[in-house]
Amino acid sequence: MLSQSPNRSRSKVPVASVASVADSASACIEEEIRGVDAPQVLPQVPADCGNSEAVGYELRAGGVYHRAKADESWSWLSSPIEPLADSRDAASKNWGRLVLVKDSDGVLHSIVIAARMFADGRDVERLLRDSGAKLSPRPTQRELLIAYVSNHPLSRRVRTVETGGWHMLADGKRAFVLGNRVLPDGCEEIVLTNSGKHAAFDQGGTLTEWQAHIAQPSERNSRLNFAICAALAGPLLDITNEDSGGFHFVGSSSTGKTTALRVAASVWGGPSHLKRWRATSNAIE
């Protein structure tokens, strides 16, 4: 049974982090997050990430355990869950916690839990369960788990943003956020908290391959050239103080309208980045 307390005389193998429970993940979030759902954790990972030592708690292959002070017995609280960092937005508001969860399939999920949610542990429980965590059926054990996630001492901090693109950070510096990278390199660690708004941004192949197979063949076609330029213009709007807008390709069937859109979409992602008018206004936005 998951809720049974392990016998202290039996051999137990504490683990340094949830990542070490996964077959293909390393002890640090940069590897943990590869191929995992959003939020995406971007560069600048401290060398000591994954430290999960907390008084009275132990993270093992079987999950999170708590040691009672009275008899020093261990009780099971949940499947593997690891608090990774304190989080806050670009204005140093909306604080929370970046947490890593391993589900029953062995898939790792990184989630940001808003600090306000800890006022009612049930909200945190729902979020953890939605990410695939298994929790003890005992209310006392679940309360101990919430205390572990909420109060676990952490030295690592990350910034959270809800969209890609340009962001002004609290120190006055600008950062450009992609799905899996922040520019310039060496910038503060940033986490994208809304997977739906950056999932279409992807990389396939190399810049050299894109230039050879898309850019160069489009060089003598004014419409394809225009489509590429329009796609590249987006990041310049913020820093040049220009309003956003759009362009409409008009023409009869089979004259290259869709081809031009596919070429433009290749700048930022694959075919999934190509949007159509047959959608709701929210979806288009």
Describe the global form.
elongated
How large is the count of helical segments? 7
User: Helix and strand succession?
Assistant: HEEEEEEHHEEEEEHHHH
Approximately how much beta-strand content do the residues carry? 15-25%
Radius of gyration: 23 Å
Overall average pLDDT? 76
Please give a structural write-up.
The protein is an alpha+beta fold and 285 residues long. Helices cover 24% and strands 19% of the residues. It is built from 7 helices and 11 strands. It has helices at residues 29-32, 121-130, 139-151, 207-215, 222-239, 257-265, 281-284, and strands at residues 57-60, 63-67, 74-78, 81-89, 96-102, 108-114, 157-161, 165-168, 174-177, 182-183, 190-192. The strands form 3 sheets. A 5-stranded mixed β-sheet has the order 6-5-4-7-11. The protein has a 3-stranded antiparallel β-sheet with strand order 1-2-3, covered by helices on one side. A 3-stranded antiparallel β-sheet has the order 8-9-10, with helices on one face. A hairpin with a 5-residue loop joins strand 5 (96-102) and strand 6. Helix 5 crosses helix 6 (257-265).
Topology readout:
Blueprint: H1 29-32, E1 57-60, E2 63-67, E3 74-78, E4 81-89, E5 96-102, E6 108-114, H2 121-130, H3 139-151, E7 157-161, E8 165-168, E9 174-177, E10 182-183, E11 190-192, H4 207-215, H5 222-239, H6 257-265, H7 281-284
Helix pairs in contact: 5-6
Structure at a glance:
This protein has helices spanning 29-32, 121-130, 139-151, 207-215, 222-239, 257-265, 281-284; strands at 57-60, 63-67, 74-78, 81-89, 96-102, 108-114, 157-161, 165-168, 174-177, 182-183, 190-192. It has 285 residues and is an alpha+beta fold.
